[in-house]
Amino acid sequence: MAAAVGPQEMTDVTRSSFQATMPHIKEALNNCSFFAIDCEMTGLFVEPSREGFLDDPQDRYNRVREAAANFVVTQLGISCFRLMPSVSADEAPVYEATTFNAYVFPVPIAGDTAPSRRFLSDAGSLHFLAGCGFDFNKWVNHGIGYVPARELESKLKQAAQTAPETRNPVAVEKPEDIAFVADVRKQLGEWLSGSEPSLMLGKQNAYQ
């Protein structure tokens, strides 16, 4: 008797919805019969050659490890399957599926002096993602940021050892600068009390 998959619920998870969605992900994982994880990446093979019939397990592991170290995950999918109660003993098992599709992107950390994450991309893989309707703008602009586990401890230590930078206040002394600041404050006040959705401030020179 073959099992069937019943109604499926899919939720896209982005940077702005991650915190609100996390309790639902934990609940689905705790209540499911089993779950499956799938990843989309910017590439699969660093070298042009793929798996060979004569490869041993170590060769395949080395190839997969190299790809994981050089490409990045663009989407992480988690599907939780829960066995539904059967009406009769003759009825085929039915599973309810709840799927979470998370966009993930190595967002640069504000204030971090280390270079941003660099990774490889394969044209064929990107073309495949585009053909499947992958939203690259959502990936970059709204993807959930993350830090590799091997880097987390060093970054936490660096943040703890870095003293807050103190800067002297900027003194506005020249008459033209005083007039400029006053004009900007006036424009901001009028904009805040008005109904315009945006405000474009002009500049007097390259430094203002």
Defining traits:
19% strand; 4 strands; 37% helix; alpha+beta; four-stranded mixed β-sheet; 208 residues
The helix count comes to: 6
Shape: extended
- The tally of beta strands, per DSSP, is 4
What is the CA-based Rg, rounded? 26 Å
Spatial strand order of the main sheet: 1-4-3-2
Amount of beta strand: 15-25%
Low-confidence stretches: none
Helix-strand makeup class = alpha+beta
Instruction: Report, as a whole number of angstroms, the end-to-end distance.
Output: 74 Å
Describe this entry's structure for a reader.
The chain is an alpha+beta fold and 208 residues long. The protein contains 6 helices and 4 strands. A 4-stranded mixed β-sheet has the order 1-4-3-2. The radius of gyration is 26 Å and the shape is extended.
In short:
The chain contains 6 helices and 4 strands, in the order βαβαββαααα. With 208 residues, it is an alpha+beta fold.
Question: Secondary structure elements and their pairing?
Answer:
Blueprint: E1 4-13, H1 18-31, E2 34-41, H2 57-70, E3 73-83, E4 94-103, H3 123-131, H4 136-142, H5 149-161, H6 175-193
Parallel strand pairs: 1-4
Antiparallel strand pairs: 2-3, 3-4
